[in-house]
Design brief:
The complex is a heterodimer of chains A (about 450) and B (about 300). With about 450 residues, chain A is α+β, with helices and mostly antiparallel strands. Chain A has helices spanning about 5-30, 70-100, 110-125, 130-190, 195-215, 270-305, 330, 355-360, 375-415, 415-450; strands spanning about 40-45, 50, 55, 60-70, 215-220, 225-230, 235, 240, 245-250, 255-260, 260, 320, 335. Chain A folds into two domains: about 5-70 and about 415-450, no CATH class; about 75-405, no CATH class. In chain A, strands 5-6-7-8 form a four-stranded antiparallel sheet. The longest helix of chain A is centred in the middle third of the chain and has 62 residues, at about 130-190. The two termini of chain A are about 30 Å apart. Chain B has helices spanning about 10-30, 40-95, 105-125, 180-185, 190-205, 205-260, 265-285, and strands spanning about 125-130, 130, 145, 155, 165-170, 170-175, 190. Classes of the chains: A alpha+beta (about 450), B mainly alpha (about 300).
Chain lengths: ~450, ~300
């Protein structure tokens, strides 16, 4: 049978539930600009009814749960897109520096080649001219120092990237450590069927930051999440994080290992993967082409020089001193300082320019690399341009799709002020109505109590 | 349908993009170039390197052409003077072959002839910018020296080599004839003929003088033939210069097409990006403060 006191209890329960819901709304509004915050829902439920005979009495409302709105699938897509974006952006940033070395068509190695051959061509109109010979040596010197500085600049971009790699590793380790700490708590709460709430938001947020840095795979286990790199190296298992180690590798470059195993080459995603890609593949590729170009060009010039005779009538000595293999471009030097030593002559007479034609022919000679010197350089220009344009396009595309995914997530999990205001009004009215019920029950109780005042036999 | 209440990141991305477009347009207008870094158009950037190299080569070819023109013209006019001197020598020879002349008259003519001879040797030792023109590739010492021991009275110290200079892609021009060929060639030995004429004037008969004069005439026409080499080389250089200038213009046009900015497009692009940005900002200003709260009083 229904009673006044049970009505009162129902009203008080409703007041509590509405208060809880107002809390949720207030928390949502407070966190509307907090990154990674997922809006929370107050889940009301009917209380278990009381059955008396044929009558089933409702027992009011309970605030059963406060639930964060999450979308695991979307989060995984965002994490994937984050690592692609981080990767492309890191490559783009590095490649912009690289391509700036090849940006000016009237300066640098390409223009120096032409200037060198032009100086020889100029000399051919007056082969015994000392200023003309000096001009050839100067042009050769410019060419050698541009080879030197291009290689040195690429090397210094590469060591800059190496530092970024070390920083990436430090950040990854700090993130995995924080994630592991949260992961234990979140796992325990989930085991108990509780909503991890803000802890879950924080963990998700940290995982997104981590995937910006490297390729993260996540698996849900009963002890929380397990995070691994793309090739399965564990990063976080339950409450334990596995730090990556940065160790000194060959040529002063940092290698990355996990539990004693070198995993550098398997790290391909994220910012770290992007830095490694440019550091270990793109720049070494360019360097080896520049080294080959320096070596093959200098060797061809020296060979042509050896065919002729200098102003003293001696066979031509090498103009360039050059090594083969790595570092050829950075060590390229002009070997002669005496302008008399340019072997212009083909017949030992001082006025002959016959051998200059052999030197000029190097300009159009197909080097072992497959093209003449200027064309080989031009291909370096287009390669760096293509790589940069490609990474730029990838960065733009992944940013756009990341925006799209974040919009999708924001639509689900973001705090909408209109919605919260509407909820606020609803809960306010409900609270007011429940309070009115309490007042009404109070009035009724007063009436019941005053009922006894008119009873016969009373004093 | 729910929408993302937090649209600022999307709008910011749009704004960044519009700003980037603005900057690109401004850079194009400022530099006049569509390709400012290789990634703007990798293949055009590479072609630009080749184009600039070709243009710079053409500049060099033009410079070579100018230098050579000066040298070849000097050689040509020197040979012109030689021809004039030889014509004088021939008229002196004709004068000397007159049977009415006394021996002392002939000696006088012989002396004039000798002075012409040394004048011609001097011309044969002409130089241009410190280089002897007619010594083959032995340009650093005078090719001809008077030497009574030689049958021609002159010794040749030069060589028989020639130089060639590239004046265009795949085109070279021979820049000299060795003095031995010009002045002592198989088709006519100017110096030998002169020496014979001097000898004939000094001690010969009018018949031998006449014969030597005829021989000098043959040598003269041979020198004139040799001179044609220089004249035609100069006109070849002139034609080459015109070709090079045309080639340079077409390379410049090609380069503008490759990497030059289309100013009209860039200007339009700039105002388009600016309008879009203004509109986005205006929309943002309208929308940001709006929510239901504005209407609850």
């Amino acid at each position: 049978m229904g009673s006044l006191s049970s009505s009162l209890l129902i009203a008080v329960q409703a007041l509590e539930a509405d208060q809880g819901a107002l809390n949720v709304t207030s928390n949502n509004i407070a966190n509307q600009n907090t990154p990674g915050y997922s809006r929370e829902l107050a889940i009301f439920n009917e209380a278990a009814p009381t059955v008396e005979g044929n009558v089933t009495y409702g027992n009011g409302v309970v605030l059963q749960q406060i639930q964060s709105v999450r979308d695991q699938v979307l989060q995984i897509q965002i994490s994937d897109q984050n690592q692609q974006q981080g990767n492309a952006q890191a490559q783009y940033n590095a490649l912009q520096q690289v391509q700036s070395l090849f940006s000016n068509p009237t300066q640098g190695i390409g223009a120096d080649f032409t200037a060198f051959f032009n100086s020889i061509s100029q000399l051919s109109t007056n082969p015994s001219s000392i200023p003309g010979r000096q001009a050839v040596l100067t042009a050769a010197q410019n060419l050698a120092s541009d080879f030197n500085s291009t290689e040195q600049n690429l090397d210094s971009i590469r060591s800059g990237l190496n530092q970024s790699v070390t920083q990436d590793v430090t950040q990854i380790n700090s993130l995995t450590q924080q994630i592991a700490q949260l992961n234990v708590k979140v796992g325990q709460m989930q085991k108990l069927g509780q909503d991890p709430g803000s802890l879950g938001d924080q963990e998700t947020q940290l995982i997104q930051q981590l995937s910006q840095l490297t390729d993260v795979h996540q698996t849900q286990t009963e002890n929380g999440l397990t995070l691994t790199t793309g090739n399965g190296t564990p990063l976080v298992v339950g409450g334990q994080s596995f730090a990556l180690q940065a160790t000194n590798g060959p040529a002063g470059m940092t290698d990355i290992s996990s539990q004693g195993q070198d995993i550098t080459s398997s790290l391909q995603g994220g910012q770290l993967g992007g830095h490694l890609q440019v550091r270990d593949t793109v720049i070494p590729g360019l360097l080896s082409q520049i080294d080959n170009l320096a070596n093959q060009f200098a060797t061809s010039v020296n060979a042509a020089q050896a065919l002729g005779y200098d102003l003293n009538g001696n066979a031509g000595q090498p103009i360039f001193s050059v090594t083969a293999g790595p570092g050829a471009a950075s060590t390229l030097k002009v070997a002669i300082t005496d302008p008399n030593l340019i072997a212009a002559s083909s017949d030992k007479s001082q006025g002959s320019n016959g051998n200059l034609a052999n030197l000029i022919a190097v300009q159009t000679q197909i080097l072992p690399s497959g093209a003449n010197p200027v064309d080989t350089y031009a291909s370096l220009v287009s390669q760096t341009g293509n790589l940069t344009a490609q990474s730029q396009a990838e960065a733009t595309a992944s940013t756009a799709s990341l925006n799209q995914l974040n919009n999708q997530l924001g639509a689900e999990a973001g705090v909408n002020l209109n919605e919260e205001t509407t909820n606020l009004m609803n809960y306010q009215r409900a609270f007011e109505a429940a309070a009115r019920v309490v007042t009404t029950v109070d009035t009724l109780t007063q009436s019941v109590l005053s009922m006894g005042a008119g009873v016969a036999g009373a004093p | 349908m729910r929408v993302n209440p937090n649209f600022t990141p999307t709008i910011l991305t749009d704004l960044w993009q519009q700003q980037a477009q603005e900057q690109t347009a401004i850079q194009q207008l400022a530099t006049g170039r569509r390709v400012n870094v290789p990634s703007d158009d990798p293949s055009a950037a590479a072609a630009d390197v080749q184009n600039q190299s070709q243009q710079s080569q053409i500049d060099q070819y033009l410079q070579n052409t100018n230098t050579l023109e000066g040298m070849l013209q000097t050689a040509d006019s020197t040979l012109g003077s030689v021809v004039t001197a030889l014509n004088q020598a021939i008229s002196l020879g004709v004068q000397g072959s007159n049977g009415d002349l006394s021996s002392s008259n002939r000696q006088e003519i012989a002396q004039q002839m000798q002075s012409l001879q040394s004048q011609i040797v001097q011309l044969a030792n002409a130089s241009y910018q410190g280089n002897y023109l007619f010594g083959g590739t032995a340009t650093q010492s005078a090719p001809f020296a008077l030497d009574p021991a030689q049958p021609s009275g002159v010794r040749y110290n030069g060589n028989s080599s020639v130089n060639s200079v590239q004046i265009a892609q795949g085109r070279s021009i021979q820049t000299n004839l060795p003095g031995s060929q010009i002045f002592q060639g198989a088709g006519g030995d100017v110096l030998g003929a002169l020496q014979q004429l001097v000898t004939a004037l000094q001690s010969g008969t009018s018949t031998s003088i006449s014969a030597a004069t005829t021989q000098l005439g043959t040598a003269l026409s041979y020198v004139s033939q040799q001179r044609v080499f220089y004249g035609s080389a100069v006109s070849q250089l002139n034609a080459n210069q015109t070709d090079l200038q045309q080639e340079k213009v077409s390379l410049q046009t090609e380069d503008t097409n490759l990497v030059g900015a289309d100013m009209a497009t860039a200007a339009t692009e700039l105002s388009r990006a600016k309008t879009a940005q203004d509109a986005t900002l205006a929309a943002l200003a309208q929308i940001i403060p709006q929510s239901l709260l504005n209407y609850l009083k």
